[in-house]
Amino acid sequence: MKNMSGMHLLIGALSALALCLGANASLAQAAPPPDHPAVTVKGQTYTPRSVLARNMGSEADRVTAFPPHRIVGNIYYIGTNTLSSFLIVTPQGHFLIDSTYERNVPAIEKSVAQLGFKFSDVKILLGNHAHGDHQEGDALVKQMTGAQVMAMAEDVPALQAMKPGGKEHPIDKVLHDGDAVTLGGTTLVAHLTPGHTRGCTTWTTTAEEGGKTYNVMLGCSLRPPAVLTPTLAEEFNRAFKTVRGLPCDVQLGDHCAQYNTQEKYAKLKEGAPNPFIDPASCTLEADIQEAMFNAILAEQQHAVRP
């Protein structure tokens, strides 16, 4: 009974802390996470702090455009050194996934032009999750292109609270788990993979290359916070299960490091196999984050033992 009472007290304290952190998302993202626990996956050791540093890099990394390039089929990379943004082109206009920070939108526009496309042809703007480093630029993209902005229902409140320069966050269509969005013969399916945010969205689609069709997964972050409440634990367990069940030949993510962009980009050569077509790596990020999730949960449980 004492153990149960202690556990309930801890859960209550952790829940309160999580609510406080959630009330100021920018502060929660800026504060460095603990440097423990440590997990090792495929010979590489990670801590919460090292994973965040890997994902975010420096301020220069977050705002410096990475060379725009074709990933596979009609899917292109137009983001920065660490923050992903994707262009999916169709005959009827284009999808843009993740506007990143508002200050990055001009660089994204330039990357689109360097690839030979028009930014004004972006018709649908999607996102992975409601954090500023991924969707703060939505209002500016909407203003510049007139694109329809679509978002998972569970992330709508957080997006509505995101108002750079006082701009209201546009939401033209609310999506739900399993909804399909189609433009110009290309269909993307929204999969709710909650935890990192309530409406964290993993997108799946297909791409044609060399006469073959490949399954593409554009993953939402699975990085757990330092505090895991029972609700968050349930959400992450759902997300891990969902991601592992999705068809995947090409795994992409909202941070470049989640799918080794720079390493794979360096291997892009005319006539050589496409390094982004790599089914064996499709669950690597899930493996890393689920190991971290379980280690954090074990630390919390250990803290209440007599």
Q: How would you describe what is shown here?
A:
By secondary structure, the protein is an alpha/beta fold. The protein has a single domain, classed as 4-Layer Sandwich (Metallo-beta-lactamase, Chain A), CATH 3.60.15.10. Helix content is 36%, strand content 22%. It has helices at residues 2-23, 25-30, 48-56, 59-63, 105-114, 132-135, 138-145, 156-160, 230-244, 261-266, 284-303, and strands spanning 39-41, 44-46, 69-72, 75-77, 86-90, 93-97, 122-126, 148-152, 173-175, 180-183, 186-192, 201-209, 212-219, 250-253. The longest helix has 22 residues, at 2-23. It is globular, with a radius of gyration of 19 Å. It starts with a helix and ends with a helix. Residues 1-28 have low confidence and may be disordered.
Keywords, separated by commas or semicolons:
36% helix; seven-stranded mixed β-sheet; 306 residues; 22% strand; single chain; five-stranded mixed β-sheet; globular; 14 strands; 11 helices; alpha/beta; Metallo-beta-lactamase, Chain A
CATH class: Alpha Beta
Overall 3D shape: globular
What class would the helix/strand composition place it in? alpha/beta
Beta fraction of the residues?
15-25%
Biggest β-sheet strands, sense, barrel = 7 strands, mixed
- Please tell me the overall pLDDT: 91
Ends apart, CA distance between termini: 12 Å
Tally of helical runs: 11
* Largest sheet, spatial ordering of strands: 3-4-5-6-7-8-9
CATH level 4 superfamily: Ribonuclease Z/Hydroxyacylglutathione hydrolase-like
User: Helix fraction?
Assistant: 25-40%
Low-confidence stretches: 1-28
Oligomer: single chain
Order of helical and strand elements: HHEEHHEEEEHEHHEHEEEEEHEHH
Determine Rg (CA atoms, Å): 19 Å
